[in-house]
Predict the 3D structure of the following.
Amino acid sequence: MASDDTQPTETPERKAGAQTCHVIHHHGSGEMHFSRETVEKLLASGEFFWLDLDQPDAADFEILSDVFKFHPLAIEDSEHFGQRAKIDDYDDFVFLVVYGAVADDDRLVEVHCFYSERFLITVHRDDCPAFTELRARYAKRDEPLDRPSLLLYRIIDGLVDSFFPILADFDDRIDELENGIFLKADESQLQEIFQMKRLLVGMRKTITPQRDTFARLLGGVAQLPGLSEQDERYFRDVYDHLIRISDLIDSYRDLLTGAMDVYLSTVSNRLNDVMRQLTIIATIFLPLSWLTGFFGQNFGFEVSHIAGWGTFVALGLGTEIVALALLLTFFKRRGWF
């Protein structure tokens, strides 16, 4: 058994031009070289196995096509990422597109699955922490892989449940944004609100079709090979989680919309306060400017009769002080300050 290339090793030496992949089967779990020979030996063993391909290239898809005899349309779909979540039924296998959440720019990881009663092959380009935890769990097991549908459930359940920590971080950040807006609103908060709304829109575009896909599965429209009535209960739990995630996304979008409204209202109120203060200042100086302009006119009567310190204080400063006092009294009664 030690010379079998299908045996997983923890620290494999990478062959020239050969992709390494994670494998779980009856003999254990670990890493192996993804080549035509190793895959053919896995298929010849007649035992169920799970192969996980990270960032596959054209040669890897060629192996999937030639060795597993997958339908060309399934291979074509698997090569192109950015698809809707779906389940396509072929003669002896099904092709699934499911999404999980990761802490990267778009918060999403897209996983393509080829599933039958003999094997499960997962293909993805982004890092998938949910698979790391699942592989560690299966590495400690003692029993063989006798329920393929249960493994598929755990993979999909891990991907779906990975949305909950991400959404919990969204919830905490929304609370922080609302508190920060009430204390001091600035433009960076508005930019973050728009960014979070874009991320939620992206999640909603993936969760909604994924929820509908599992609704089709539970409704009997789509079928999984070897899915028993008992196993169907597990996928019903996945469907329930997808409904919860969809509701959370809609709720957080509403909260962000409310936070944006609060931001705009706060900024508008601040602008109104500034405009009111400037209006009061301009109104105060309006009569003062008129008085100084009036007494600054070079009329003969004013030049001959308005002279001396007393006249200056009484007419020059006195009228301005009286005008200012009358304006302040009027403002106070109107409640403008």
